[in-house]
Write a sequence for this structure.
């Protein structure tokens, strides 16, 4: 049980967490995705670079350079997806809230006309 708060503290201190927070806030304040997403991807890629550099000698020793490159490319794709997600989710919530469309319960459920 003491491990959960420890994990949360470690996550809140991580660079990745703060990159997502900054990307989300940037989208809330209207920063264009063309700026925020590439910067977030670059930050995520730079933060994960040391672990991949550490793996390179071992991959090279066993002849798995291709697998190493696949891992790096998949990590970059994952970084892109996460950066887009952080940006899009918050910007869409912000846009919906500004026009009064945020609804936690659908209208047809409220009126009782929902079809099961």
């Amino acid at each position: 049980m003491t491990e959960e708060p420890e994990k949360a503290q470690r996550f809140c201190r991580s660079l990745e967490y703060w990159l997502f927070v900054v990307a989300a806030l940037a989208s809330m304040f209207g920063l264009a995705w063309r700026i925020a997403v590439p910067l977030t991807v670059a930050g995520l890629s730079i933060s994960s670079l040391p672990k991949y550099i550490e793996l390179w000698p071992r991959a090279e020793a066993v002849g798995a350079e291709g697998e190493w490159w696949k891992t790096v490319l998949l990590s970059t794709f994952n970084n892109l997806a996460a950066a887009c997600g952080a940006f899009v989710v918050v910007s869409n919530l912000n846009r919906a809230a500004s026009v009064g469309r945020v609804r936690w319960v659908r209208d047809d459920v409220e009126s009782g006309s929902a079809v099961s």
Observations:
- Residues 92 and 98 are 10 Å apart (CA to CA).
- DSSP finds five helices and no strands in the chain.
- The chain has a mean pLDDT of 78.
- Helices lie at 3-12, 15-28, 33-61, 65-98, 107-110.
